[in-house]
Amino acid sequence: MADLNSFYSQWAPRTLSVLRIVTAFLFMQHGGQKLFGFPAPSQAAHPLFSLIGVAGILEFFGGLLLLIGLLSRPVAFLLSGQMAVAYFMVHAPQGFWPLLNKGELAVMYCFVFLYFAVVGGGSWSVDYLLRRGDISHCSGTF
Description:
This protein has 142 residues and is an all-alpha fold.
């Protein structure tokens, strides 16, 4: 049992980092679509300083910061709030149930980002390297 506990304590921060990286990569695609028409074109062109343009900026560049794990907690908190606003502005008016109003992804992102805001970016993040004062040491043995 001690070996299993050791395994969990060793891999929990690493798995947290994997969840952060994958989530951020997926989230960045939403911003990329709004800002650059990539990986799929948006339905319409949006001015950069419109509500959708600002959402694209937050999604792409906030996602990029989260992907590398820089300022993970404040960025995740900001993105969690953005997803809450998106849910209540766009999805909730279409009905109560997230599955029916197509808001389940916004809800999921909101709570995953809220989780990152509390626990941070994990052991494979720039934040972790800066906290250790060891930014030049990237050998993979965190």
